[in-house]
Each structure stands twice: as C-alpha cells, then as structure tokens.
Design goal:
This protein has helices spanning 47-50, 56-60, 120-149, 162-165, 182-194, 210-215, 240-248, 257-282; strands at 7-9, 19-23, 69-72, 91-92, 95-96, 152-160, 170-173, 199-201, 223-231. The chain is an alpha/beta fold. A 7-stranded mixed beta sheet has the order 1-3-2-6-9-7-8, with helices on both faces. Strands 4-5 form a two-stranded antiparallel ribbon.
C-alpha cells in the first residue's frame, strides 16, 4: 500500500450524512517512481495534470465539512483510472497499448506516452496497488454508512471536458435510473437549476462510469449512486485551446472564481437536501 492512498476525509461524527463523495479523477500526481525521463517527449509530463478533472478539488474535496465522507485518489488517471472497468485496456504481445481505459499508455494518435512499454504483469501489480484498494475502501466506507443509516448514496464527482461536454453545463448520470432513485437525481437537478445552471440527465457518454455502475444497487442493497459532471469550461477563464496550451507548458489555467463559488454553493445545498430525500425514499 502506498502511504496516503487513497485519500479519505471524514465528517465530524455528529454531522455525518449517508453520503459518500467519490472523486476518481481528482489526482494530478505521477506515480512515485515516475520521473521526467520516463516520458517519450518532455511535454508529456504535463499529461498527469491534463488528464485530471480540472479544479475537481475546488468543488468536491472539502464536502466532508458538509457531512459527506470523501474518497479520492492523489494519482492521475493516466496511471490508473479507477472509474473504468478493471479489464478495460488493450494489449498486444504481452504489452499494454491503451489509448483510453483503466490506464493510458498511448495518445489518441497511438503515440507512446512512456519510454518503457508497460507489461501485463506490471499493469496487474499497479491495479493491485491502486485500483483494488480504491474499490475495497469504497465498499468499506459504504458498508459503514449503510450500517449507520440503513441506506447510502454515492455522489461520484467530476468536471468534464469542455470539448466532450460541448454546451452541456451539468449532467447527472444514473445509468438511466438503474443506479439511483429518480427522486434523488431530481433533488440534485433542482438545486443546480435553481442557481441558473442548465441540467441534463443521462446524456450519451455521461450515463455513469464504473463506480456508479458498481455501487448503485438501490433495490437490492439500498445504495444509490449518481455521477455528477460539471463542464470545466464554467470553472476557468481560458478557452479550450488556451487551456491545452497552458497545460502543455505545465501551467494551471486561471480559475473562474465566481462560477466555482456558485457550484460550491449548489453542492452545499445538495448535501443539505439529500439526507431527507433519501429518508423519504426509504421510509415514505
């Protein structure tokens, strides 16, 4: 186990809510043994930051102060993406060649990111060190909440790519209501709508990743799960093209502080509203 992995933040016992906030793309750090020399091109070192969810920490990381239990990974998803299926990777002749999935070894143009190929045995060791403990911790924390309340909800927090999200501002994903009671998603949507954000649900490509699909078992376990995507373009003052240029130089784009504050207020209201909504769903 790597010290400090995964990140867990607990609320004060008296303020605990039946909500776990997962931030799977929070991390911007490389793995401890990765150095600049490990990349095929010097600027690829910026990928560790560029593939993180931009400013996700500014939105979700302190929600333990509002009663949620927070779980996150400090490492960038190019090394292990805990929101993908464990077997979501490509390989050829014993070497991993994955452009997107549980690990990224190549760019979308099939250019190797790293100087040394990643073997299947090395990937398995990485998954056992980082992927499996994340899910084990997720399950343990949910079990604790379920014992305390009789039900629980996972809010899987993301900020989405401006290119992929296009004009969508906020997207809630519940695998088309399979992982969460519709009333709970409606509670979240109502808060963001009231604050002037356009909210959509289960848009193609944003119906909910592996965490939501794995955890969300509302009918059999009383555990709900929804994915929340906030368009990262709302959170920065730079355009998408400027953002890419910033990241390529190892710089951090300028934050749109007013919008970040608006989203944070929405999340505070969501955390305040969900416990009673959960109670109503389970004890109408």
């Amino acid at each position: 186990m790597i010290p400090g992995f995964p990140i867990i933040k607990r609320p004060p016992a008296e303020a605990q809510a039946p909500i776990l906030v997962s931030i799977p793309h929070y991390g911007t750090q490389p793995l401890p043994h990765i150095t600049a020399a490990d990349y095929t091109e010097p600027w690829f070192e910026t990928f560790a930051y560029g593939f993180a969810d931009t400013f996700a920490g500014d939105l979700y990381a302190d929600l333990h102060e509002q009663g949620a239990t927070v779980l996150a990974t400090p490492f960038s998803r190019i090394f292990v993406d805990v929101n993908r299926r464990r077997n979501d990777f490509e390989h050829l002749d014993g070497m991993v060649r994955s452009r997107r999935g549980v690990v990224r070894t190549h760019t979308m143009r099939d250019v190797p990111i790293f100087a040394r190929p990643l073997g299947l045995a090395d990937l398995e060791a990485r998954l056992q060190t980082l992927y499996d403990p994340y899910y084990a911790t997720l399950e343990r924390l949910l079990a604790e909440l379920h014992r305390a309340f009789g039900y629980a909800l996972v809010l899987d927090g993301h900020t989405g790519s401006p290119r992929r999200m296009s004009d969508h501002q906020v997207i809630i994903g519940t695998r088309h209501d399979a992982t969460c009671a519709p009333e709970l998603a409606a509670t979240v949507a109502a808060v963001f709508t009231r604050h002037g954000f356009e909210v959509h649900q289960n848009v193609s490509g944003y119906i909910g990743g592996n965490i939501v699909a794995t955890c969300g078992q509302p009918h059999t376990r009383g555990i709900h799960a929804l994915q929340l995507e906030v368009n990262a373009s709302l959170l920065m003052t730079t355009s998408r093209e400027e953002f890419i240029a910033h990241v390529s130089r190892g710089e951090i784009p300028e934050k749109a502080e007013e919008n970040i504050a608006r989203v944070r207020e929405c999340l505070r209201e969501v955390l305040a509203a969900l416990p009673s909504a959960l109670a109503t769903v389970h004890d109408p």
